[in-house]
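Risk register update: the risk of archive-format incompatibility is retired. Evidence:
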Amino acid sequence: MTKQAELQKRVLEGMSTVVLLFDADLNLGYINPAGEMLFEQSARHLLGLSFVELIQHRNEISASKWIEEVKSGQSFTRHEVPLILLNNNEVTVNLTILPLTDSADKTEYLLEIILVERWLRITRDEQRAEQQEVTQEILRGLAHEIKNPLGGLRGAAQLLERELPSSDLKEYTQVIISEADRLQTLVNRILGPAGLPKLKDVNIHEVLERVRSLIKIEVKDGIQIHRDYDPSVPDVKADHDMLIQALLNIARNACEALKGKGNITLRTRVVRKYTIGLQRHKLVACIEIIDDGPGIPADIRDKIFFPMVTGRAEGSGLGLAISQSLIQQHDGLIECQSEPGRTVFSIILPIN
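Archived output:
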């Protein structure tokens, strides 16, 4: 292989765009690693399959027209096309098919596929991060403004209590002091953790086992906690305590959603070629906390990572916001998919 050919191969294999090359009979001759991930099969199993075996449009007539256009030598691009893949996954993509003819008049067909969902997710993640940053700054400013008068209120109640002659009256000052303490705790949670994360190599399974042991102490017997760990997941650079806190907040929310009965699964996997924001990572660790509860109400699903947003009357709405902030400090992110009977929080952390 020449240096030029080797360089071209490295470029193709490093692309996030799916690239497939079909021969004159529209049988697959090449697929890059991004394509293997899309079809969830290795190139060895995919090579030789026909275009129609690999890709089907929901409308069979459209798929037939594509083949006619391709064989007539026309190139074309389609946007937001719904496809059914070989693995029966349904995806929405932008695709381009380009006929390639060499000097010997041999024709091949290049198919490029870009997942629309991926670009929508990147845009959504960026917008969410910006909105959360603005919201956090506003809340921190308010928290600082509340902190000083709150301390004065508590101190005045303590001084008043010393001067009161009756123990019955002191009951009222105790209410003031306890409520001031409760508000102080809430303000501290809004302010979030102080300082930057102290990064070191952390085994995420050790962290998950710590979270699991803490949750088991708190939950009722009706909640079962299952483990589905991938032992091949390498260590990540993280702050051990911050990671425990972030995962613990999510796991506690799952327990509260189950209301004393159900299942929680702690799952780990390695994901290749994953984009966080605008940064493309070769490898990321994916930690999933899955519950089979009623799901998150549809009207707040897009806002659950904002402070003060909660689906529970007794909730503060800070746990998920703090978790997202902690994970973002590790250049990671948290995503959520929820429907009745299955809620999945995915914590994505880069692997260096």
